[in-house]
Amino acid sequence: MAIFKNSILELVQFNKNDIKGLIELSASVGWDYDEYEIGTVLSSGMIFGHKNFDGKIVSSAAIIPYDNKLASIGMLIVHKEFRGMGLGKDATQKCIDFASSNTSIMLIATEEGRPLYEKMGFITVDCVHKFLCDDYKPINKSGDVTTEEFNSNNLKEILKLDKAAFGDKRSKFLQNRINQSEQCLVVRDNRANIIGYGISILGPINLILGPIVAPDSQTAALIIDRLASRHQGKFRIDVPSGNEEFMLFLEQRGFKQVSQPPVMVINSAEMPPRNNTLFGIAAQIFG
């Protein structure tokens, strides 16, 4: 709880009735959450925060627990008129307390939020590279693999690929994300084995590209090209570090890197093992 003008703002858990207020809160800091994105967050995890005395949402923080020993925190927002009261810390701590003590918790920090997370015990272990594009230049190459639209029979194999790429199985989240998607593609090799997949999400401003899972940067590039080719508008992708060849491809296609936010963890000294096949994350909130 936080004290404000001799009164108390209670920390609460939000539900679908709060989606409009959460959209308004995110818009107040220039973030472009919409009802579909917040719906996926709510159906995959929990959102906590505070309301003022008129019932207006003035803070939020979300946690997305995955199948085993990893969770992701995001959507930490405090309305500018209610900053300096500890609301962000309280909401973040509620997310941490929601997970078990042996669960590694990750987040991708803003520069404004980083000092708070450090005080709470988070350490920086990596970074991601945020890319935006206003005018995508297609490659129009087929390669030695084939892409096709996802169907439900592909889910088991996609979950397996994603677990190795991300570091934990994300059954509930990935099913929700596919349901939300503008497009979900699977990639098969010349023996018809599924070797990768990619998802696009149509947001209010950008077509968000990710997750992108592929055995190599060339296949990742092909997935991006297939997802981007039928969209007229802006794009965004967040790329894990260590993918220099893929990032060069993005720059050649019209993407520009605009920031490099840190990846931070608590209850662990490092990220869970990954097999270097994750070329684009789902979104910063989902890790």
- Helix-strand pattern: EEEHHEEEHEHEEHHEEEHEHEEE
Helix and strand content put the structural class at: alpha+beta
Radius of gyration: 19 Å
Shape: globular
End-to-end span in angstroms? Answer: 28 Å
Largest sheet: 14 strands, mixed
> Which stretches are poorly predicted, pLDDT < 50 over at least 5 residues?
none
Helix content: 25-40%
Mean pLDDT: 95
What percentage of amino acids are in beta strands? 25-35%
Q: Helical segment tally?
A: 8
Looking at the chains present, what oligomeric state does this protein adopt? single chain
The count of strands amounts to 16
Quick overview of this protein structure:
The radius of gyration is 19 Å and the shape is globular. The protein has helices at 19-28, 35-44, 87-98, 114-119, 155-166, 171-180, 217-228, 244-252; strands at 2-4, 7-9, 11-13, 46-50, 59-65, 70-78, 104-108, 123-133, 146-149, 183-188, 194-202, 206-213, 234-240, 255-259, 262-266, 278-280.
Structure, described:
The chain is of the alpha+beta class. Helix content is 28%, strand content 32%. It contains eight helices and 16 strands. The chain has helices at 19-28, 35-44, 87-98, 114-119, 155-166, 171-180, 217-228, 244-252, and strands spanning 2-4, 7-9, 11-13, 46-50, 59-65, 70-78, 104-108, 123-133, 146-149, 183-188, 194-202, 206-213, 234-240, 255-259, 262-266, 278-280. The strands form two sheets. Strands 3, 4, 5, 6, 7, 8, 9, 10, 11, 12, 13, 14, 15 and 16 form a 14-stranded mixed beta sheet that branches. α2 (35-44) packs antiparallel against α6 and α7 runs parallel beside α8 (244-252). The radius of gyration is 19 Å and the shape is globular. The model has no long low-confidence stretch (mean pLDDT 95).
